[in-house]
Amino acid sequence: MSRPGSVIVTGGASGIGLAVVEELLAEGWRVVAADLVPESIEKARAALAAHGDKVRVVQADISDEAQVVKLVAETESGFGPLWGVVNSAGIARDIPALETSADIFRKILDVNVIGTFLVAREAAKVMQARSAGSIVNIASVSGIQGNLGRAAYGSSKGAVVVLTKILAVEFAALGIRVNAIAPGPVDTPLVQAVHTDQARAAWLARVPLNRYAQPKEMAGTIAFLLDPEKSSYVTGQTIGVDGGFTAGGLIGL
Questions:
Q1: 1 falls within a domain
Q2: Which of 87, 121, 154, 251 is deepest in the core (most CB within 10 A)?
Q3: pLDDT tens per residue, range 190-203
Q4: Count of the separate structural domains present in the chain
Q5: Closest CA to 147 of 195, 219, 208, 190
Q6: Nearest-CA neighbor of 194 among 207, 212, 208, 180?
Q7: Which residues on adjacent β-strands are paired with residue 238?
Q8: In this structure, is residue 247 part of a structural domain?
Q9: CA angle 109, 111, 113 (to 5 degrees)
Q10: What's the CA angle centered on 239, arms 236 and 241, to 5 degrees?
Q11: What is the band of 248 on the pLDDT scale with cuts at 50, 70, 90?
Q12: What is the CATH number of the domain that holds 177?
């Protein structure tokens, strides 16, 4: 299948990001997977080696403005043209509000909100020349509902939801669409590190499908939002991919 250009996936060396990279490669996109963790980068390079020059796995800190500018510029000039971005990089802490320090809060905002903004902004600067492009942000159900232990993380993802709407409105005249997905509980390395057995039981009690998702189950919706034909009139939306969590009320007696 012919695709109009390349896609940057941040946080692309593990979890949801890696699943998205694999899905996009299968659909014929050229993909740059950007990540911060050296160990994850090396594992991803080995796992994706069969795709040859269709994929690059690079190191980048999305909270560093200069690194984001370089990432987008090098993708556009040496791997592009840049058609899409998936802002999957993020960090989380499951911690009560009374135990959340300002430093923890700032760090989460710096990566999840400012990092998402920087990548989207720089991508839009090059996309506007072609009047085409799609940006997909990863929000969370914790940015929609008030979940315990998510004062910092939930606030950051709520900001991503609103940022998505604002950028969709501002970038529409440039021909660029901006959307988000809001995952529920997904079995990623990040979630496995954060969710205790008690937390997992609490999530399962509220998810109508009664299970955690696999990372690849997020990839299909993201691929749809990137597709220039299938989702050409969709912008400013946050789509829940959450097993029914945000729709749920009383789900068992």
A1: no
A2: 87
A3: 788 878 888 889 88
A4: 1
A5: 195
A6: 212
A7: 180
A8: no
A9: 55
A10: 160
A11: confident
A12: 3.40.50.720
> How many whole angstroms separate alpha carbon 52 and alpha carbon 64?
28
Cα(83)–Cα(133) distance, integer angstroms: 5
Active-site position among 79, 83, 105, 153: 153
Tens digit of each residue's pLDDT (9 = 90 or more) over 31-77: 999 999 999 999 999 999 999 999 999 999 999 999 999 999 999 99
The residue to which tokens 């040496």 are assigned: 78
Q: Is 212 a known active-site residue?
A: no
Instruction: Average the pLDDT over each of 60-69, 143-152, 169-178 and give the range with the smallest value.
Output: 143-152
Which tokens hold the place of 249? 């009320």
What is the four-CA torsion angle of 106, 107, 111, 115, rounded to 10 degrees? 50
In a domain, 22, yes or no: yes
Question: Two tokens at 149?
Answer: 């232990």
Query: Stretch 120-135: mean pLDDT, rounded?
Result: 98
Residue 248 lies in a domain: no
Write down the mean pLDDT value for the chain: 95
State residue 86 phi and psi, 5-degree precision: -120, 110
